[in-house]
Amino acid sequence: MVGVMSHSVSAQTRAAGSTGRLVALGRLWLAAALVVAVGACLPGPAAAHARAGAAAHARRGAHSRAAVRADSAARAHRGARAHRGVRAHGCAHARTPIWRATRAQLQRAVVCLVNVQRRRRGLPALRESPRLNRSAQGWTNVMVQLRSFSHGSDFGARISGVGFNWSSIGENIATGFSTPAAVVAAWMASTGHCQNILSPTWRYMGVGVDDRAIPGYSARPGTWTQDFGLWMGQSPASGDWRPAEGCPY
């Protein structure tokens, strides 16, 4: 099974203030979570507005905007039978099972599939970040090892810890999906996760993947983390929020 969970944290203080939800979809669950946070220790007003529930989105600094909605209904999609190296939307290994591809191949496939979704809606493509890959992979490993499905107590500190000096970051997680195409399709079908993928703010992303499931959340293989970011001092990649506001797809 695959699972869906939403989790929110106070946008001003990062204090615990969470809501959780598990949505069953036949024999499948989509596993995901939301964190919204703004660093309270930084100077200047923090104008972050959480409008959603099922993906992680953190910002710090002045005049920020969170493109997440209050509706967190999730839908899982069964993909076509996977074969080694099978492409989807022109992305190599998009339908390759995780046990038949290297980590780098799977990471590139997720980045490619995300950029297909962004380009289709007129948004700039994201660049793969080695630092965000390290953050995402490290957290994927932790979730599997600890049998825990969450964003942790402070995913912003985790991303800072790999040397990514961010002004805005986001995160999607999932478990129970065995191919890049399956997990990206599930994220795109969930409002908050889709809005992270289509946020005009980001310039970079990273991916973590483990071929194991998280017991208690999924019996099916495949646990994933997707980190997004904008470097401190950079301008957002775009100002077009319309694709994100149209989520899910």
Can you describe this structure?
The protein is of the alpha/beta class. Helices cover 24% and strands 15% of the residues. The chain has six helices and eight strands; from the N terminus they run ββββαβααβααββα. A six-stranded mixed beta sheet has the order 3-4-6-8-7-5. Strands 1-2 form a two-stranded antiparallel ribbon. Strand 1 and strand 2 form a beta hairpin. It is globular, with a radius of gyration of 16 Å. The two termini are 22 Å apart.
Q: How are the strands of the largest sheet arranged?
A: 3-4-6-8-7-5
* Number of extended strands: 8
Taking the alpha carbons of the first and last residues, their distance comes to: 22 Å
Mean pLDDT: 75
Overall body shape = globular
H/E element sequence: EEEEHEHHEHHEEH
| Gyration radius over CA | 16 Å
- Percent of residues in helices comes to 10-25%
- The stretches of 5 or more residues where confidence is low (pLDDT under 50) are 4-29, 31-54, 61-84
What is the percentage of strand-forming residues?
15-25%
Biggest β-sheet description: 6 strands, mixed
In terms of structural class, how would the helical and strand content be classed? Answer: alpha/beta
Task: Please tag this protein with its features.
6 helices, 8 strands, globular
Structure at a glance:
This protein has six helices and eight strands, in the order E-E-E-E-H-E-H-H-E-H-H-E-E-H.
Topology:
Layout: E1 24-25, E2 28-29, E3 36-37, E4 56-59, H1 103-120, E5 127-128, H2 130-146, H3 155-160, E6 166-175, H4 180-188, H5 191-197, E7 204-210, E8 223-231, H6 242-245
